[in-house]
Amino acid sequence: MVKAHSISLWSAAGSTGRSTIALAVASELAEAGHSVFLLDADTVAPSLNLMLGLTDHPAGIAAACRLVSAERFDLEQLHRLSVSYSTGTRKLTLMTGLSAASRWPELTTDRVEQVLMVAAEHFDFIVCDLANSLEVGLRHFETGLERNALTRWLASSADQLIAVVNADPVGVHRYLAEVPNLQSLKLAGEQHILVNRLRNTVLGNSAKQQIAETLSRLAQVSVSGYIPDDPIAADLALRDAMPLSLAKRNSSARQAIELFVRNHILSQRSHLDRRVAKLV
C-alpha cells in the first residue's frame, strides 16, 4: 500500500501567514482530487479552528493522543475526532490542535506518529501546520519532555518541508537566524522556501532578486515560490472563515499557491505556468 505524502509547513517567529498557507495548500490538494488530512500540530498557537470559525468541534489531536496511549486509536476514531471540511467541490479532513498551549506535553512524538501512521494508510497527503520554535534544550519541569521535540520531528521527517518567509528584512533575518537549527535537523525530505506577502513598498521593484540573492548567499537555499501580498483576499478569507480559494478564487496570492502546489508538490507543469508566475 502506498503511504501518504507528508508535508510540513514551518516558519520562524512572527506573523508569517504560515497557517493561512497550510490551509490553502491542503485545500488546493483536495480540489485537485486528492484525499487530504490536515493536522494542526502547532503546540504554541494553534489557529486553524479559529480561522475556519469552528467554535464547536471535536477534541482533535489531544484526544487522539489519549486514545493512542490506551491503544484504542484507529481510522474510525480519526474521523470521529476530526472535521470534514468542504473546500468547494471537494472535502478535506481537519484534526484541530490543542485547546491550550500548556497542554503540549500530551503531544509526544510517539503518540502523534501513531496518529499519522493511521492517516498515512488512508489519505494521499498529510499536511501539518507546525509551531515556529526549533530550539533544543527546553524541557518540561515535571516530565522532562523536550519542548520542541514534536516540531523538530515533524519538520525533519516530512517528505517536504515548506518554510514560509516574510518578504521583508525582519522576516528574512528571522529565517536566517533559524538556519543553524534547520541544518541540525538533517531533513529527510526536500525543503521549499515560500516567500510570503511580496510587495515593492519595502524592498523596491527588485524585491524578488534581493531576497533570492540574500537567501542564496547566506543560507545556500533557493526560493521555490513568491506569494504576492493580497490583504483584501486574506482579510476576506479570515472574515468569512474559509480558505483563500473559496474567499477569492482569482486572488493573486491564491493563484501563486496553486502554482506552487501544482509545480512542486504534484509535479504538474504546463506551458502557461511561466505566464502565471509573472502575473503573481
Which key terms come to mind for this protein?
globular; single chain; 18% strand; 13 helices; eight-stranded mixed beta sheet; 280 residues; alpha/beta
What can you tell me about this protein's structure?
An 8-stranded mixed sheet has the order 3-4-2-5-1-6-7-8, sandwiched between helices. Helix content is 44%, strand content 18%. The chain is an alpha/beta fold and 280 residues long. The longest helix has 17 residues.
Largest sheet: 8 strands, mixed
Number of helices: 13
Average pLDDT works out at 93
- Any low-confidence stretches, pLDDT <50, length ≥5? none
Order of helices and strands: EHEHHHEEHEHEHEHHEHHHH
How large a portion of the residues is in β-strands, by DSSP E? Answer: 15-25%
Rg from Cα:
18 Å
Percent helix? 40-55%
Give the termini distance in whole angstroms.
38 Å
Class by helix and strand content?
Answer: alpha/beta
Q: Which strands sit side by side, in order, in the main sheet?
A: 3-4-2-5-1-6-7-8
- Based on DSSP secondary structure assignment, what is the total number of beta strands? 8
Q: Choose one word for the global shape.
A: globular
Quick synopsis:
By secondary structure, this protein is of the alpha/beta class. It contains 13 helices and eight strands. Strands 3-4-2-5-1-6-7-8 form an eight-stranded mixed sheet, sandwiched between helices.
Write the layout of secondary structure elements.
Elements: E1 5-11, H1 18-31, E2 36-41, H2 48-51, H3 61-69, H4 75-80, E3 83-86, E4 91-95, H5 109-120, E5 125-130, H6 149-157, E6 160-166, H7 169-185, E7 190-198, H8 200-203, H9 207-219, E8 223-228, H10 231-239, H11 244-247, H12 252-265, H13 273-279
